[in-house]
Design brief:
- The protein is α/β, with parallel strands linked by helices.
- The chain has 15 helices and ten strands.
- It has an eight-stranded mixed β-sheet, sandwiched between helices.
Length: 377
C-alpha cells in the first residue's frame, strides 16, 4: 500500500515536471524591446478604495512611465472613507494627464472593483488600449512600453503581469512565493499564452487590454459579479477568439504588506472555494491531490524507521526532491534560498487548510469582507 502511494506521488511529480507545460520554470517574462514606431493611445485606470497608504506612489510611477504615445491616467475613487481621493488629486494637480473621478454608489450585482473600472472605462472612450492596475502597485519607467510592445508584436488582445508581491516578513517569506507557485500550477503560463490551449488566466494587478477586445465580450459588465475578476476577464477574451499573454513581472511590484498570517489567510479563503466553483467534489479532489502530491512524499521518507518500506521511502524522498527542484525558480524570483523548497509540504498543508476554511465559510453563509464591503462566498 505504501509503495503504491509513493509510486503515485512520484508519477505525479514526473507529470508536473515534464508534462504540465513547464509551469514551474517561471520563464514567461516581458522582453526589454521597445522598438515600436507606432504607439497606440493608452488610458491607465486605477480603481481605488481606501488606498491612502499607496495611491500617491502608484499614480506617480504611472505618470513617470515615459510612454511615447498618447497616455492618460484615470483614478476612480470608489467611495473611500480615507484620504485616497485627496491624495490622488494632489498628484493630479501637477499633471494634466491625470484625472480623478468618483464612482457613484455601488449598484447591486457588481463587485466594487469592477464597478469602479466600468466608470474609468467610460471616461476613456478614445483609448486604443486600457491598462488596469491596482492602487497598491508601482511600476518602474518603461513597463507600459513593454506591455504595449508585447501586445502589438505578438498580436495579443490582453497582456497581464503577475507583479512581485510584498515579501519581507516571516509569513510573507513562507507563503507568498508558494502562492505564486500554486497560481502557476493552476494556470500554467505557457498554456495560457498558447492560442491553441483553452487555459485562460490573468493577474488583475496589471492588465493591458485592447478596447476592441473588451467591446467584443460585451464590456466589463460581462463579468460584473465575478469575484475572481482577472481570470474571468481572461477567459472571456480567450473564448471570444482573442489571444492573451500572462507572465511574471520584473519591474512591477505591490507595496501592500501582509499583516501577519491572518492577512494572508484571509486573502486565500476569500476566493479559494469560489475558484472551485463551490463544488464539494472538486474540494475533495483538491484536498486529496494536495495530500498525495505534497504531504505524502515527506511523510513516507520521514516515517521510514516505523514502516520499513525502503522502496516507498525512496520514492517519497525522490518526489520531495522533485517538488523542491520545481519550486526553486519561483523562490529565486523572491530571493529565497533553494533549501526553502523543502518546506513546501508544510506550506501546502497550510493552503489546504485555507481552502477547507473557505468552503466552511461558504456553507455557513459567511461573506467575503474586503475594504468595508461584504460579498457572498
Amino acid at each position: 500500500m505504501l509503495t503504491a502511494i509513493g509510486a503515485m506521488a512520484l508519477l505525479a511529480w514526473v507529470y508536473l515536471l515534464f508534462f504540465h507545460h513547464g509551469f514551474w520554470r517561471s520563464d514567461q517574462r516581458l522582453a526589454n524591446d521597445e522598438s515600436l514606431t507606432d504607439w497606440p493611445s493608452v488610458t491607465a485606470i486605477i480603481p481605488a478604495r481606501n488606498e491612502a497608504a499607496s495611491i500617491e506612489a502608484c499614480v506617480s510611477t504611472l505618470a513617470a512611465q515615459g510612454y511615447p504615445g498618447a497616455f492618460r491616467i484615470v483614478v476612480v475613487d470608489d467611495s473611500s472613507t480615507d484620504a485616497t481621493a485627496a491624495l490622488a488629486q494632489q498628484v493630479a494637480s501637477a499633471s494634466a494627464q491625470i484625472d480623478v473621478l468618483s464612482a457613484p454608489p455601488l449598484e447591486p450585482g457588481w463587485t466594487g472593483k469592477l464597478w469602479a473600472l466600468s466608470h474609468g472605462i467610460e471616461a476613456a472612450p478614445a483609448a486604443d488600449m486600457l491598462w488596469f492596475t491596482d492602487a497598491d502597485i508601482v511600476h518602474e519607467p518603461g513597463v507600459l512600453q513593454q506591455l504595449v510592445t508585447k501586445a502589438q508584436e505578438d498580436d495579443r488582445d490582453l497582456v497581464s503581469l503577475m507583479v512581485k508581491l510584498h515579501c519581507k516578513s516571516f509569513w510573507e517569506h513562507l507563503l507568498v512565493p508558494a502562492f505564486i507557485f500554486f497560481f502557476q500550477m493552476l494556470y500554467p503560463f505557457p498554456a495560457v499564452n498558447n492560442p491553441r490551449s483553452k487555459v485562460a488566466g490573468a493577474a488583475g494587478g496589471c492588465v493591458l487590454i485592447r478596447r476592441t477586445a473588451l467591446d467584443r465580450i460585451g464590456g466589463i459588465a460581462a463579468i460584473k459579479d465575478a469575484l475572481i475578476d482577472d481570470c474571468a476577464l481572461a477567459e472571456a477574451v480567450k473564448k471570444g477568439g482573442g489571444n492573451i499573454w500572462l507572465g511574471l513581472a520584473d519591474y512591477s511590484r505591490s507595496i501592500r504588506p501582509a499583516d501577519g498570517l491572518s492577512s494572508l489567510w484571509h486573502m486565500v479563503t476569500r476566493t479559494a472555494f469560489t475558484q472551485l466553483g463551490y463544488s464539494v467534489v472538486l474540494l475533495l479532489g483538491t484536498v486529496a491531490a494536495l495530500t498525495l502530491i505534497f504531504l505524502m512524499p515527506p511523510l513516507l521518507l520521514l516515517s521510514l524507521p516505523w514502516h520499513d518500506d525502503i522502496v516507498a521511502g525512496l520514492m517519497g524522498g525522490t518526489a520531495w526532491l522533485a517538488m523542491a527542484i520545481a519550486y526553486r525558480p519561483t523562490l529565486l524570483v523572491y530571493g529565497r534560498p533553494a533549501l526553502a523548497g523543502l518546506l513546501l509540504p508544510v506550506i501546502a498543508a497550510l493552503y489546504t487548510a485555507m481552502t477547507i476554511h473557505s468552503a466552511i465559510n461558504h456553507w455557513f453563509g459567511a461573506s467575503s469582507h474586503w475594504k468595508g464591503r461584504d460579498y457572498r462566498l
